[in-house]
Structure to design on (416 residues):
């Protein structure tokens, strides 16, 4: 009867609650022991280090495994979970919206299968990079990635202005539905040994303890993010030690002893190291390129254990003049919504796109100067025309080339 079923449910709940509470307490003790170990290392307390590293921590880890095994052996469907996953969230949303779970999950599957197409809308001329990143994300989403590590970790190599940062932004928008889901840190600010405390937070008693670390605090507040570490080669060796733990365990302990989870982040590190190697790789097999690049990185003082923890090392190639025209279209498309707020429609002729591509291309800086060119040749001219009244709200505006110069002017009729 109903009372018997209720009694059985209560017994089942109680049998699960005890090991779940034990696991939670043990994990808290383990976090504290790891914080104490880091403190002992900073203070060169070798006796305490040995006690924690070879006694306390291994025992706590074994106790956690034993408690988790006890929980796994409970017969029947589990009632309690330590963490919710994507399937749990999909099930709740399904109940709210009355859309079957299978349809919600299927939409995510289709999105992943077409990932390269979505990224290609923003990143031009880096087909291999898009494929490697997309494959890594699909592996993670399919459950083939180590669940105790970040969703993916990448080292982007190549010259400036070729799309490394833009791919990071595009990935944030694809995975987390907003370009703002990106935590960007300039590693040239972490060249000194003491800068580790700025990254993960100062220990108790030190200046800045209450503020938290720039990296750990940002991820603690926004755990679903792309973490972009620019110019990684400039970071101090002690900073690399912190990153090793992040890449290996998917977590960091901040200065206040809190464990910050990086398992739902994508870690992207960029470097201009090796920009002068690119011409050597023309026509080479990808496996051979990877072997040479890893060897060269070791010569550039990247430690082998650090290189081995990165999921993929991706080489970005120089942008060509032909690819610049497509980048011009992308940049112009960024301007159109702002003009649409004033009901202004912008048209750009092919000749104008060619001229903007030519003026915005620099072999040394790639596509980076293009933004300034469009600001100067297009945005400034439209702004001046709006203030002068030659362009009004609701106008169709055309950018074209006349007598070898770019001209921005309103048109009464425009035929595609």
């Amino acid at each position: 009867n109903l009372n018997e079923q209720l009694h059985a449910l209560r017994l089942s709940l109680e049998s699960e609650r005890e090991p779940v509470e034990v696991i939670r307490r043990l994990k808290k003790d383990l976090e504290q022991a790891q914080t104490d170990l880091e403190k002992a290392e900073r203070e060169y307390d070798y006796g305490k280090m040995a006690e924690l590293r070879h006694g306390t921590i291994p025992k706590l880890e074994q106790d956690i495994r034993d408690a988790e095994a006890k929980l796994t052996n409970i017969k029947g469907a589990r009632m309690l979970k330590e963490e919710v996953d994507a399937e749990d969230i999909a099930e709740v949303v399904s109940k709210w919206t009355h859309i079957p779970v299978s349809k919600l999950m299927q939409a995510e599957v289709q999105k992943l299968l077409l990932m390269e197409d979505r990224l290609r809308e923003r990143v031009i001329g880096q087909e291999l990079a898009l494929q490697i990143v997309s494959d890594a994300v699909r592996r993670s989403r399919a459950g083939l990635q180590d669940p105790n590590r970040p969703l993916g970790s990448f080292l982007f190599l190549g010259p400036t202005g070729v799309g490394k940062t833009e791919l990071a932004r595009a990935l944030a928008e694809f995975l987390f539905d907003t370009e703002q889901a990106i935590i960007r840190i300039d590693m040239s600010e972490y060249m000194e040994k003491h800068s580790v405390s700025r990254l993960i937070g100062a220990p108790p008693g030190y200046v800045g303890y209450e503020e938290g670390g720039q990296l750990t605090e940002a991820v603690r507040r926004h755990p679903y993010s792309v973490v972009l570490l620019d110019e990684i080669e400039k970071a101090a060796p002690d900073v690399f030690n912190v990153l090793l733990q992040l890449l290996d365990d998917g977590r960091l302990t901040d200065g206040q002893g809190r464990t910050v989870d990086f398992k739902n982040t994508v870690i992207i590190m960029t470097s201009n190291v090796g920009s002068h190697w690119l011409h050597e790789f023309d026509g080479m097999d990808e496996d051979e390129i990877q072997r040479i690049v890893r060897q060269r990185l070791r010569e550039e003082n990247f430690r082998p254990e650090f290189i081995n923890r990165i999921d993929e090392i991706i080489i970005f190639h120089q942008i060509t003049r032909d690819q610049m025209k497509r980048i011009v279209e992308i940049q112009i498309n960024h301007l159109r919504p702002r003009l649409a707020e004033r009901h202004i429609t912008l048209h750009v002729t092919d000749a104008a796109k060619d001229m903007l591509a030519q003026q915005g291309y620099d072999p040394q800086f790639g596509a980076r100067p293009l933004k300034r060119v469009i600001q100067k040749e297009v945005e400034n001219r439209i702004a001046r025309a709006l203030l002068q009244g030659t362009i009004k709200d609701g106008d169709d505006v055309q950018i074209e080339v006349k007598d070898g110069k770019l001209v921005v002017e309103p048109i009464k009729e425009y035929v595609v």
